[in-house]
Write a structure and sequence with these properties.
Oligomer: single chain
Mean pLDDT: 84
Shape: globular
Number of helices: 10
Helix content: 25-40%
CATH class of one domain: Alpha Beta
Order of helices and strands: EHEHEHEHEHEHHEHEHEHEE
Radius of gyration: 19 Å
CATH topology of one domain: Rossmann fold
Length: about 300
């Protein structure tokens, strides 16, 4: 089984933290591949950066030209999951929902400790949309930006533990969800201090992705997550149009087809068999391919 774990920002150091967390939690026999967008913000702390990163994440996943079985979206409450579900058949698991779902299995209430206060509404929205907000005791911000968490792990631990303590003692949370992918690896420190279960969204999402694949399930294409209708999209895929990809794909120019449904780990490769892309065709305008099949007709992996 191969799971793609996509960082929503372009930070190399944070991508490695995410990669380490995914490897730590993956079951034997599961391969995790950490990716980061070709373009976008080095950290995601506001709505503008979140929407921009969503385009970067979709672009990056479609550019991955090897078979895979599931995608973990490593952005806590960030945008892009729904769009990516329209473009591929494989399950897409977002770390905010994954952490909350796991927390509800081990505690009556949970709290989220995130980075900045301005990140709280996006997390509230994601939990509400998923039907999980009712069990959330609070969402607390440490006051440290994503970049500051990355640059000062010791300070991050102090700030996160302090907010987690308030969540447990004042808000009566019985479990803590780490509200940033860059916080991966801090679970033990918080559990030691407070004695409550601490859920890292990366670990929760990887394990849930394994379970979904193991059950033989793929994303429903009957309505909400059906592939986009065919139409011209100028400048898509963005990374191809901007010349950001390493290696050329089959065809000429910067245009391409955003294939709906990438190949599974035992299925077919990308639309034109390129070296690092899922594009094909010529010109500067891309077209979104309709249809639920994989790019080259590959079927979901037999389980």
């Amino acid at each position: 089984m191969k799971i793609i774990v996509v960082n929503v920002n372009t930070s190399e150091s944070m991508t490695e933290i995410i990669a380490e967390g995914a490897r730590r939690y993956a079951s034997p026999g599961t391969q995790t591949v950490a990716l980061r967008p070709f373009f976008g913000p080095e950290a995601v702390d506001c709505n503008f950066e979140s929407y921009l990163s969503a385009v970067g994440v979709m672009d990056r996943v479609l550019a991955y030209d090897e078979p895979f079985d599931a995608v973990v979206l490593a952005g806590f409450g960030e945008h892009g999951r729904d769009g990516l579900q329209e473009l591929i058949e494989q399950p897409v698991v977002e770390i905010c929902e994954a952490a909350a779902q796991v927390a509800m299995l081990v505690a009556r209430t949970f709290s989220v400790v995130t980075t900045l206060q301005r990140s709280v509404p996006a997390i509230e929205d994601r939990l509400k949309l998923a039907g999980l907000l009712g069990r959330c005791a609070s969402i607390r911000a440490s006051g440290m930006s994503t970049l500051e968490v990355d640059a000062d792990p010791a300070g991050a631990v102090r700030g996160i533990v302090a907010e987690a303590r308030i969540a447990v003692e004042r808000d009566h949370a019985e479990a803590i969800c780490l509200g940033c992918a860059g916080m991966a690896g801090l679970e033990e420190a918080i559990t030691t201090e407070l004695g409550v279960p601490v859920i890292d969204g990366i670990g929760a999402a990887v394990r849930l992705a394994e379970a979904i694949v193991g059950l033989g399930l793929t994303t429903s294409k009957v309505s909400t997550y059906a592939p986009p209708d065919p139409k011209k999209i100028t400048g898509w895929p963005v990374s191809r149009a901007l010349g950001l990809r390493a290696g050329a794909t089959a065809g000429a120019g910067t245009g391409g087809v955003a294939a709906a449904g990438g190949a599974t780990a035992a299925g077919a490769a990308t639309a034109a068999g390129g070296t690092d892309g899922a594009t094909a065709g010529a010109g500067t305008d891309g077209a979104v391919a309709a249809g639920g099949a994989t790019a080259a007709g590959g079927a979901p992996r037999a389980l």
